[in-house]
């Protein structure tokens, strides 16, 4: 439900979109969500590696996004008999002004081929928090300095890290209210480059109250959080979200989808076995995806319709995917625990991916 390609995220990812789909097909994926990053509206909002690419594709403009939708639709039709392709994008809530832009890119009357978007927050105060440690510290210092200028007598006992995380969840709250996304991306991304990524947020009252508030908003809106295994690829001990957050979300009745947040074929399905173990440790028995009808393409527009002359948005049905198959199927060795992984990427995937999903696992 969350993937990228170098073709439409130049400098930030690798490989063509078709190569991503081809590997997903070869690996046995049943469904894949294509979620290229949305256009940015100012050059200062691009990451450094994006600025180094061809200026025509690194400029914050729409042509690349339009080309992505055309190519995704072509590939959806080409591979329709082999894989269920959902067409989406990752919305970047860099500042509140991005809200209307994100919603416009999901307008079913203009973009009926778009099935959903991911609501993500990669910035605080307009500065990136997940690029590298120096950039993270710069964003934190900038925010703390803004507080000091607004309050001549700040509380010296307040931890700058706490203040920064509180602001992250406040901006995430703004995003959730403005966008009501179907999927909330890497809910606690703020911990990636923080002073202590393993710190339990439930022990920090100001942070925890904001997390609970945001989770309630997501659940009430029917949004799914993704169990995003890219956190494991980047060295964290748990996927996004961390266990305290995940448990609170589940207690509220929240539901998970499952993602690798891959940025090229080398990252497809990375750490899926660990991600599944993690979900099972939380008592999760199923994850959720979407099934579109029709597939491929969009629904035919009514003959007298002026509102949707290019077709109507496909109907989307929520689909549960059990984590465990049970019975004899659990003895199938696909290089992961107990054979349940073929629900996601199919028998023989370990050989197909050349071990990229991790070492073989026993059925213990």
UniProtKB/TrEMBL annotation:
The keyword Transferase does not apply. Its EC number is 3.1.3.15. GO terms for molecular function: histidinol-phosphatase activity. GO terms for cellular component: cytoplasm. Signal peptide: none annotated. It catalyses: L-histidinol phosphate + H2O = L-histidinol + phosphate. CDD domains: PHP_HisPPase_Hisj_like. Gene3D superfamilies: Metal-dependent hydrolases. Pfam families: PHP. Keywords: Amino-acid biosynthesis, Histidine biosynthesis, Hydrolase. Residues 1-230 form the PHP domain. Pathway: Amino-acid biosynthesis; L-histidine biosynthesis; L-histidine from 5-phospho-alpha-D-ribose 1-diphosphate: step 8/9. GO terms for biological process: L-histidine biosynthetic process. PANTHER family: HISTIDINOL PHOSPHATASE-RELATED, HISTIDINOL-PHOSPHATASE. Belongs to the PHP hydrolase family. HisK subfamily. This is Histidinol-phosphatase. It comes from Parascedosporium putredinis.
């Amino acid at each position: 439900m969350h993937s990228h390609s170098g073709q439409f995220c130049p400098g930030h990812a690798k490989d063509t979109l078709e190569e991503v789909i081809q590997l997903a097909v070869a690996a046995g994926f049943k469904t894949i969500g294509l979620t290229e990053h949305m256009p940015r509206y100012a050059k200062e909002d691009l990451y450094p590696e994006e600025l180094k690419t061809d200026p025509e594709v690194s400029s914050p403009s729409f042509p690349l996004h339009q080309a992505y939708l055309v190519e995704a639709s072509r590939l959806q039709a080409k591979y329709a008999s082999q894989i269920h392709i959902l067409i989406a994008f990752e919305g970047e809530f860099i500042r509140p002004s991005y809200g209307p832009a994100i919603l416009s890119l999901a307008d079913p009357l203009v973009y009926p081929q778009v099935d959903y978007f991911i609501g993500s927050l990669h910035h605080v105060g307009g500065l990136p928090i997940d690029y590298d440690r120096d950039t993270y510290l710069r964003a934190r210092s900038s925010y703390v300095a803004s507080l000091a200028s607004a309050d001549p007598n700040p509380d010296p006992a307040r931890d700058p890290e706490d203040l920064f995380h509180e602001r992250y969840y406040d901006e995430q709250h703004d995003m959730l209210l403005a966008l009501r996304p179907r999927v909330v991306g890497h809910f606690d991304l703020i911990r990636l480059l923080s002073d202590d990524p393993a710190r339990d947020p439930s022990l920090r009252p100001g942070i925890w109250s904001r997390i609970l508030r945001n989770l309630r908003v997501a659940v009430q809106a029917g949004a799914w959080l993704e169990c995003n295994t890219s956190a494991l690829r980047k060295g964290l001990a748990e996927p996004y979200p961390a266990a305290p957050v995940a448990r609170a979300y589940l207690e509220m009745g929240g539901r998970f989808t499952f993602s690798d947040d891959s940025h090229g074929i080398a990252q497809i399905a990375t750490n899926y076995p660990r991600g599944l173990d993690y979900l099972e440790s939380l008592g999760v028995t199923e994850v959720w995806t979407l099934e579109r009808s029709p597939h491929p393409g969009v629904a035919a527009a009514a003959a007298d319709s002026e509102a949707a002359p290019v077709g109507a948005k496909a109907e989307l049905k929520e689909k549960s995917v059990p984590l465990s198959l049970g019975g004899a199927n659990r003895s199938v060795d696909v290089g992961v625990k107990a054979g349940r992984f073929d629900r996601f990427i199919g028998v023989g995937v370990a050989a197909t991916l050349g071990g990229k999903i991790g070492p073989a696992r026993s059925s213990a």
